[in-house]
Amino acid sequence: MQSSPHRYSAVAIALHWLMALGLIGAIGVGWYVSELPMSVQRLKLINWHKWFGITLLLLAALRLVWRATHRPPPEPPMPRWQAQAAQGVHGLLYALMLAVPLIGWAYSNAAGFPVVWFGVLPLPGFVGTDKALAETLKGVHKIAAWTLALLIVAHVGAALKHQFIDRDRLLARMGLGKE
Questions:
Q1: Which of 64, 93, 132, 168 has the fewest CB atoms within 10 Å, counting from its CB?
Q2: Alpha helix positions (H), the chain
Q3: What does pTM read for this prediction?
């Protein structure tokens, strides 16, 4: 992958695609496990979902630090409303990439279950056990995750529109294709 003023850095590209794969995994496991009856398999998958969430929380924080310290390439020419929409969606994506795992962590704590990252590192609880709060946080986590999933679909749709309708080679900025 060549360095270019029109392409994100290799680190930014790697973080983007790691997050993309991780989000697909976390959302997929979360939706799948929510339909399972209580079993050893369900508990195992809930732990995997928590591990995904904490890992994605750390990657999202790293992405924010990287973004704050490294200038992104210039946007391709587009109408002002599209640039503003892209900026708004990106802001919401970042906010939800942080909020969804934090809400899930709080939900787990409120339900009385610790979060032990990869079964090795116990994470501190920041919410006390409270069954009513757990039920509220469960709903908030679900709504936030659905919102994140819908924003991801919008993000992918906009990128594909730019690539195949506008033909502005937008995907090359994120490492897909030539400039």
A1: 132
A2: 10-34, 40-69, 80-110, 131-161
A3: 0.91
